[in-house]
Amino acid sequence: MDNLFAIAINGIFVKNFLLVQFLGLCSFLGVSKETKSAAGMSAAVMFVMILASTAAFLIFTYLLQPLGLTFLTTISFIIIIAALVQLVEFIIRKHSPPLYRSLGIYLPLITTNCAILGVVVLNVRLEYGFLQSVFYGFTAGIGYTMVMLLMSAIRERVNVLDVPASVQGLPHAFFITTLLSMAFVNFFGVIPT
Amino acid sequence: MAEMTIKGEYIRGIIKENPIFALVLGLCPTLAVTTSVENALGMSGAALFVLLGSNIMVSALRKQIPPITRLPMFIIIICTFVTIIDMVMEAYTPPLYKALGIFIPLIVVNCIIIGRAEAYANRNTVKFSIVDAFGIGTGFLLVLVLIGIIRELLGTGMIVLFGYHLISIPINPATFMILPGGAFMTIGVLMALVNYGRIRKLREV
Q1: How many Cα atoms sit within 13 Å of A183 on the Cβ side?
Q2: Residue B1 falls inside a structural domain
Q3: Which residues in B46-190 belong to E strands, given as ranges?
Q4: How many domains does chain B have?
Q5: What is the pLDDT of residue A191?
Q6: Closest-CA distance of chain A to residue B6, Å
Q7: Residue B147 lies in a domain
Q8: What region, left, alpha or beta, does residue A151 occupy, with left being phi > 0 and alpha being psi -120 to 50 degrees?
């Protein structure tokens, strides 16, 4: 069992979801063109990650495991995430219209974001307890946010560079990600495994 | 689409609508599991199975599924096949299952599969949906194996497939290639090459 500090360092740096584990790359490349939308997307992802890891832990431990229904894990997690995203959308629209206007368009995208399903499945695979699951969801969200903001800040600035036509767009974004990822790989030795 | 032929539909999935380079879908598993050719083959095999299953089911049921609930239905169909392949691989190929890790359950949220269900299987007959699944699956497999070959060869200096040494080259292995950074660089270079070819073709026309 890992302690919370180790989970935090793992979630944010050593096993960063975007740069080391390759989870949630579609949204990463799609939404990181400007800082504002990157911040909106990351806030939505972090929020749903925390809620999803809480709900998934409760359902897995108190419903699926005692009844021997663990073969339904994947399908129930997807349904939990989809339902949560809908719920969050309703609540935000009702209570905070300004927040809804800034987050709204990103919420439906989150259902098929593999970072969310990834954190939930990892919680089960690593056999985390309740507090650890929720905390892992939270720190993975922080790691995601950090990289999204870094990447969008870089992309906003390199937009004005004159690169060959064939490298423009996605290949260029991949090269930037390579450098970021190399920096994060240096964190590998931080926690002795 | 004027005339659909089986061969034409198959080739289209490999080249014109290649899931990685043309449609840019399903990047996460493409980068994560291509540390070796063996993992790349395992992943694309699993994805092909799920794609085939979901395309057959969706196209067979396309007249029964009400349009308004189609996405949840697609997800449930896909989930079923993912659970099947997940359990089969856990039982029969434990090392591969361990190497692919959470990316087997994550096939559920792979945009390629739900994209094909929505854009193709929902509108075409079972026969062509099977061809489409094989075409797109082959396109995915070829890209994964290509990236796997590049990364494994440069990263370890040899290619080991199911316990056999296929090729080994006398270089100093660059560990960077099998680290995450190597994956991003490989796909960046490949995509730039594809774009280069495309731009040159446009200029000729």
Answers
A1: 9
A2: no
A3: 158-161, 164-168
A4: 1
A5: 63
A6: 31
A7: yes
A8: alpha
